[in-house]
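Subgroup meeting minutes
Present: P.N., E.W., G.H.
Scribe: E.W.

1. P.N. recapped why we're keeping a running log of single-chain structure predictions: easier to compare across weeks, and new members can see raw inputs and outputs side by side.
2. G.H. added today's entry (148 aa).
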Amino acid sequence: MKEYIWFNSYDPGVPHTLQPYPDITVLDVLTEGLKQRPEYPLAIFKGREVSYREVEEHSNALAKALIASGVKKGDRVISLFLNCPQSFIAFFAIWKAGGIVVSLNPFYTPFELERSINDVEAEVAIVGSTYYHAVKSFQPHTKLRFVG
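Output recorded in log:
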């Protein structure tokens, strides 16, 4: 392994590599957490615990809806949320449906959102209620066929 100068700044005991890096996905981590501790909080948001089971159930339901709406492997799906449980539930759902998550900055202007959506040629967007009307307003100028 090549030695880099910044390794000299690492604290004692910090490895210089991630090897052997596990050959698993984020969905595998969710599945393992669900098996080991289904009621354990995966996240705490504004004092409310969100369990692995809840995330699994909600992301499965959303993944089924995405598939029913025509999302297939490799499709780019917009995710537009503030930092909240819905954002990572959407990520898991998009991955379960075979899609590619395109997370956009919720502080973009409508022009920036429209341009970003067109740049990635997304046809589906999952958005927080705060952004729904803005995205619907420029939907005709995009390839979006579904905004939910």
